[in-house]
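Could someone model thymidine-5'-diphospho-beta-D-xylose with this protein?
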Amino acid sequence: MRRILVTGGAGFVGSNFVHHVMATTDLDVTVLDKLTYAASPAALEGCPPGRVRLVVGDVADAEVVGPLVAGHDAVVHFAAESHNDNSLRDPAPFVRTNLLGTFTLLEAVRRSGVRLHHVSTDEVYGDLALDDPARFTEASAYDPSSPYSSTKAGSDHLVRAWVRSFGVPATISNCSNNYGPWQHVEKFIPRQITNVLAGGRPRVYGAGRNVRDWIHAADHASAVLRILERGRIGETYLVGAGGERSNLDVVRLILRLLGRPEDDFDLVGDRPGHDLRYAIDATKLRTELGWRPAYSDFEAGLADTIEWYVAHPGWWRAHKREVEAAYAAVGQ
Ligand code: NAD
Ligand code: TDX
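Reply:
Sure, complex below.
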């Protein structure tokens, strides 16, 4: 492999992946990104000159995607509409990008025979009970809850069908909740950090007992590269780093790290259909591909992330007002 195409590479996880590829391989990267509200082209600044090229375009546009795919040795597909709350307000872009976009890419890959890695989420498996010792595995049944997760589940099914019916050389990964630099302020951890930095209070849905399994985006990136390089074609790998925490615990930790009282937050209306708990069993990735996360200490990773938001106020303030207005409109 010499040149890879990274869709959604100007987004949160995609840009972390591009930096990981720059730091650990000799690969050149073309980023295909529509530059939606969620993109941060600035996140790609600092990449070695000449090794990363940005093409602004839609992954659902076959005329753009076909020739681009044919000129690369592999495709890593991050591009998606990614926020559950947005999918409850307006599902249409989720159906278009997550389903039609993946279909368009699959057709291009089918014609050219190029290797594909499809990046997906643990949310395709629905949720687990809070008191259930089980975790998701590659054998868990699909049972998505939201417009976002159902379109990601549909995209996974498309990839599997194209592997089986057309022999497309693809792998899939399903990862748990990411945190780290460049995550949009609409998401839980950046929203709460920036609420505090802006002089406000964190806003926790429902009773805050929901559990997420946190992984640093740099670790998600290293897992995706490992699967691209060594994963078996047609296989799915779950990605997680053993980071289960309730939303209340995360918010209290953010408040403590920012020197505020741990009860200085508001409980607000719950998300409709709110998944209770996600938890990943990443045994297959660890044993078959020897992957290990670099960030095993969530508190240290969160402290680094807080420092990053403290150091980049210009970036997040540009989005904050609009995001908070949309939440305020639904009482959250
Ligand atoms: P993000 O919203 O931060 O970034 C998405 C990127 O895709 C943006 O740069 C956006 O401009 C681009 N994009 C959107 N629609 C596009 C289109 N039609 N054509 C081309 N580009 C388009 O999302 P993220 O959090 O970085 O997630 C990236 C991928 O990782 C998604 O597929 C998501 O399902 C998956 N994932 C994310 C997490 C997480 O916690 N963030 C966890 C598991 C899986
Ligand atoms: O203000 C908030 N208050 C709150 O309590 C927000 C924005 C969220 N929450 C809760 C909802 C969830 O239980 O925090 C938890 C995390 O919420 P999000 O950051 O919106 O993430 P989630 O819905 O779990 O989905 C994320 O992980 C899986 C990503 O956004 C997806 O792209 C990924 O697939």
